[in-house]
Structures are given as structure tokens and as C-alpha cells.
């Protein structure tokens, strides 16, 4: 298994947590430096035509891409421990919670979006950070709304076991930390994220603990 | 089954196609007018705290939200015809193709994003449309890159049967039509979208064929 990732990529972070939970060690980790635009190079485009991270090669099949699709694949091919509950309704809830981060929040602040805002829309750094903080906050608020309301919420986002929803909660909160978003209004989200980050599978996957990462982040 | 949707919402369109494919008729369709901001009202917030469309109530369980999670739920609870292939690698490919639209393209142009750009970032209509067209184009290019390369591509995105990937290809191309994006560079995407829209399940789900829709769209 060959894992294309980058320390700072929150989508890579999500898959790294899933790999750790499943105790899967990729044979090779290929660093694709998003800051240098390496994801746009022809050699990476040949691997993932979408030119985003992460990507995973497992055997000789076509490349796996998109973090949610990769996590579902890992869950189907390495079922223990499960990243999704067994019942369809629970699975739907976990997937929907995960997508708050992976579809409706994180894709609005990835490097390609920030670059387009800076170079094409000529938005200054203040405007770009206002934008990023807004969508991180919207994601946190949506998660809090569901998690604080639903009886299914337990120690983790869905009961007492870690699921794909927790991975995405942790990614959302880590992004909030990068951009110094006020997380006080989201106590349920923060409680769950804290429970997650206390687990080695999450802690050792943290962006700032990866090769090439700085000691701290000043974006 | 109660389906909260809006004619123009492409996420609702995705679920509408899935319901048609599965021949599921919701008992009630509730119109939530995104143009009037009805998704932000307290009564809808009580249903879906994320305040986005679509949402689905099935029996007495918690609300189902997020179009991809709803489609997976429908596929698990109404397995025929399948929206995902049987093999994990094929499922991963279909999910990843779907997420190009549902995570990396469509969420960047929904009403809340356009409203924030207009009212908070003070971007004029030209800048907003440049933005929207750019991310529609990026999604089309990513789909084309994968679909044109992979041996798994057939009449549809993954072989000879309609999958969730086709639903998202159709949504991507429909969005491109709304914003008059040049689709000429994406022949594989367009071939597949044309095959899809020839099917009644897709055709009758089209945004402009829903109650409340105008005869044509001038955004």
C-alpha cells in the first residue's frame, strides 16, 4: 500500500487516523508538498487526475482517492474495528456528520481555494481569513446542532465507539485550531474531539506530528 | 417518508434521482424555498440543524441529511437496483467520482456561499460567476480525467449500470448548464450525462421539471 499525503492536508489527516485505527501500515508514504504545488505536477496528475490529496494505491487496482471513499474502502476491506455502525440509520447518521466536515466545510478552504481567492479574486489576507473562519464556524455549528440534539451521541459522535464521524469531528476541530477559531460555543463537539485526540490513533496522526511539519503553525 | 427539497437544489436533485431509480415515492414532499431563505427558519432548523437541503424523514428515526448519506441509506434499505457495485474497489471508485461533485465542486456554489460572497466579501456578480464557473469547470475536468482514463468506465461512469457516480455526473453537468459553462473539453462526462438524462428516473427529476420551477433558468 502506497499513501500519497502531506502533513498539513486535513483530508490526509482523516485517512491517516483511519489507517491507524485499522492498524494498517502503508509500505510507502509519498510526500506531496501542497505548499510547493507538487499536486499539480504531471507525475501526480497521472496518479490522481483530480490533483488533490490524499490518494492510496492498494495492489494493482486503480488509485483510490477522496478521503471519505478511502475510509469506506478501508472499512470494507479491513472490517475491524468498524468505522461505521451496523444499522443503516446509524450508518447514515455517521456519514452525514462526516460530510459536514468533508463536503460542506473543509473543501471551502483548501489551498486551491485560497490561491484562487488571492490571485483571481484579489482578496486580501483579512478577507481570506474571514472566509475560512466563517466556514469552519458553520461546520462546527452544524455538528454541534446535531450532536447536542441526538440521543445517539455518546462519548463519541455515535455511541461509545469511534466512527468516521469522529475522524471528521477531529479534522474540523484541528482546522479550527489552525485558524484560531473560537470554539467555546461548541461544547459537545469539543468534548468529543478531546476524547478522540486522547487516543493514540488520533494523536499520532496529527498534522504537526508528521515529517516535514513545523513545530507550530503560523499560517 | 417525508422529503424536504427545493426545485433548484442540486443536492435535492441527486436524492430525487435516487428515489426515482429505487421507485420510492415519498408520502410527502415539503418545499423549502432556498431563495426565500426558508432553510434558515426555526421550524426547518429543528428538523435539520445544519439548515441545508435535502433532508429525509423515514419512519420515526432521526432525520436523514446530506445527499450522499441519504443515497447510501436508500441503497442499503432498498437494495434493488443497486447504486453501488458489489466489490469494495468499485464502490470506492464510484464514491470518489460522486464526491468530486458532492464535496469538491457543488458545496462551493450553494446559496449560502453566494450570499456570503455578495454581502460579506462584497464581491460583485461578475466575480461571483467567475468563481462558480471555475469550480464547476474544475469538477468537470476532474471527472473527465478519471472517466477518460479508467478501464472501468462504460456506458455509465462505472460499467453498464447506473451508480451514484452517474447521479453526481448528472448533477455536475446540470449545474454547468445553469451557469452556461463550456462543456466541450469534457466529452466522456457529457456522453455519460446524456445517457443518464435519457433515462426517465433522471429526466423527471430535473430541477426545471419540479413544482415551482420557472420554464427556464436565468440566474
Structural features:
four-stranded mixed sheet; 49% helix; homodimer; Glutathione S-transferase Yfyf (Class Pi), Chain A, domain 2; Glutaredoxin; 4 strands; mainly alpha; 219 residues; globular
Question: In brief, what are we looking at here?
Answer:
The structure is a homodimer of 219-residue chains. Chain A has helices at 10-21, 42-47, 67-77, 88-102, 111-119, 125-149, 164-178, 187-197, 200-203; strands at 2-5, 28-31, 55-57, 64-65.
Fold and architecture overview:
The structure is a homodimer of 219-residue chains. Chain A is mostly helical and 219 residues long. Chain A has 2 domains: 2-81, Glutaredoxin; 88-203, Glutathione S-transferase Yfyf (Class Pi), Chain A, domain 2. The first copy, chain A, is 49% helix and 6% strand. The first copy, chain A, has helices at 10-21, 42-47, 67-77, 88-102, 111-119, 125-149, 164-178, 187-197, 200-203, and strands at residues 2-5, 28-31, 55-57, 64-65. A 4-stranded mixed β-sheet of chain A has the order 2-1-3-4, with helices on one face. In chain A, helix 4 runs parallel beside helix 7 (164-178) and helix 7 (164-178) packs across helix 8 (187-197). The longest helix of chain A has 25 residues, at 125-149. Chain A starts with a strand and ends in a 16-residue tail after the last helix. The mean pLDDT of chain A is 96. Chains A and B meet through strand 4, helix 3, helix 4, helix 5 and helix 6 of A and strand 4, helix 3, helix 4, helix 5 and helix 6 of B.
Amino acid at each position: 500500500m502506497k499513501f500519497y499525503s502531506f502533513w498539513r492536508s486535513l483530508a490526509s489527516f482523516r485517512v491517516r487516523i483511519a489507517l491507524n485505527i485499522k492498524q494498517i501500515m502503508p509500505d510507502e508514504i509519498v510526500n506531496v508538498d501542497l505548499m510547493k504545488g507538487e499536486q499539480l505536477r504531471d507525475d501526480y496528475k497521472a496518479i490522481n487526475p483530480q490533483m488533490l490529496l490524499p490518494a492510496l494505491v492498494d495492489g494493482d487496482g486503480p488509485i483510490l482517492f477522496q478521503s471519505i471513499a478511502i475510509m469506506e474502502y478501508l472499512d470494507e476491506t479491513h472490517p475491524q474495528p468498524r468505522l461505521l455502525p451496523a444499522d443503516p440509520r446509524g450508518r447514515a447518521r455517521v456519514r452525514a456528520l462526516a460530510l459536514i466536515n468533508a463536503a460542506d466545510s473543509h473543501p471551502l478552504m483548501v489551498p486551491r481555494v485560497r490561491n484562487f481567492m488571492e490571485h483571481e479574486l484579489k482578496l486580501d489576507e483579512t478577507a481570506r481569513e474571514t472566509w475560512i473562519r466563517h466556514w469552519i464556524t458553520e461546520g462546527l455549528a452544524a455538528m454541534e446542532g446535531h450532536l447536542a440534539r441526538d440521543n445517539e451521541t455518546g462519548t463519541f459522535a455515535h455511541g461509545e465507539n469511534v466512527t468516521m464521524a469522529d475522524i471528521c469531528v477531529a479534522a474540523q476541530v484541528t482546522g479550527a485550531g489552525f485558524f484560531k477559531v473560537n470554539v467555546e460555543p461548541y461544547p459537545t463537539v469539543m468534548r468529543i474531539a478531546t476524547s478522540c485526540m486522547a487516543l493514540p490513533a488520533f494523536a499520532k496522526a496529527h498534522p504537526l506530528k508528521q515529517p516535514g511539519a513545523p513545530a507550530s503553525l503560523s499560517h
